[in-house]
């Protein structure tokens, strides 16, 4: 039996759909905070609230493998993840797969500390593990693409930094491959897209796809933060966005390891394909 936490999220739903193509539905468990949101998945549904450990033990009962999709509540993830790991250990699970961040144990990436801490908890648990260190999703740029096409420009402070993004479906397919395959025990996979692109190149892609001129305007971090606050973002959110652009500028999201392509057995989805889909929907 394979249990998927966070199964009603964007990534979780894709993983469940992928598992259903390879396994009987009764062998897949969607462990979710709000069960009524999961019944359309067509698999076994169990309540699993990261903040209610007693629900986790029940949700993971009988699990052979568990996919721990990292929580979305920044600042609360470490205790939440610890509760899942403990429940998996109590349930006698043989393999825990975790969606982590690029080079989580060594990178200065702003998102990495909670992932590094979770990886340490998993290693210390004694469970067999696989760390899927997911890079950036094409879907992270949905609002940027929409706004840029509508206004003809977009801003940032990433400089010439590159982003090796891939589709969320690509990362989901990698999780399915690990959960249903063999030989992934105690492995760490650095997952990213096949091609790393700059923001200026994204602007050129937007121009080509939309048929309208779209330009990228690179700002200093200070100018970028001021512009975001002026546009209505809370100060803390603006600081976070600027920090991510700084990470991009420093090359922390640029690695094209090829490991995602190898796991899924096909090329990753290029940003241009995603841009085309978004533009078509406008």
TrEMBL record:
Identify the domain of life: Bacteria
Natural source organism? Amycolatopsis acidiphila
Q: Name one Pfam family in it.
A: NAD_binding_10
What is this protein called in UniProt? SDR family oxidoreductase
Q: Which InterPro entries match?
A: NAD(P)-bd_dom, NAD(P)-bd_dom_sf, NmrA-type_oxidoreductase
- Domain NAD(P)-binding per the UniProt entry, residue ranges: 6-180
Which ranges of the sequence are coiled-coil? none
Lineage, please? Bacteria, Bacillati, Actinomycetota, Actinomycetes, Pseudonocardiales
Q: Supply the PANTHER family for this chain.
A: NMRA-LIKE DOMAIN-CONTAINING PROTEIN, QUINONE OXIDOREDUCTASE 2
């Amino acid at each position: 039996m394979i249990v998927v936490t966070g199964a009603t999220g964007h990534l979780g739903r894709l993983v469940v759909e992928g598992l259903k193509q390879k396994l009987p539905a009764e062998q897949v468990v969607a462990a979710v905070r709000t069960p009524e949101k999961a019944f359309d998945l067509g698999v076994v549904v169990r309540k699993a609230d990261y903040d209610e450990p007693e629900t986790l033990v029940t949700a993971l009962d009988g699990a052979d493998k568990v996919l721990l999709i990292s929580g979305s509540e920044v600042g609360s993830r470490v205790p939440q993840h610890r509760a899942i790991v403990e429940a998996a250990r109590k349930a006698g699970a043989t393999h825990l797969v975790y969606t982590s961040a690029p080079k989580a144990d060594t990178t200065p990436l702003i998102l990495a500390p909670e992932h590094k801490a979770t990886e340490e908890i998993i290693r210390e648990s004694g469970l067999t593990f696989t760390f899927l260190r997911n890079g950036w999703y094409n879907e992270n740029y949905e609002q940027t693409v929409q706004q840029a096409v509508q206004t003809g420009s977009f801003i940032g402070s990433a400089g010439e930094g590159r982003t090796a993004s891939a589709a969320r479906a690509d990362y989901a397919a990698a999780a399915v491959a690990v959960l249903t395959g063999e030989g992934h025990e105690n492995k760490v996979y650095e997952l990213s897209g096949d091609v790393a692109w700059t923001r200026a190149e994204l602007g050129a892609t937007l121009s080509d796809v939309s048929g309208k001129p779209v330009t990228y305007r690179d700002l200093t971090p200070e100018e970028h933060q001021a512009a975001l606050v002026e546009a209505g973002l809370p100060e803390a959110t603006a600081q976070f966005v600027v920090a991510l652009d700084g990470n991009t500028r420093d090359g922390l999201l640029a690695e094209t390891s090829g490991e995602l392509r190898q796991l899924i057995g096909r090329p990753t989805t290029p940003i241009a394909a995603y841009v085309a889909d978004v533009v078509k929907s406008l």
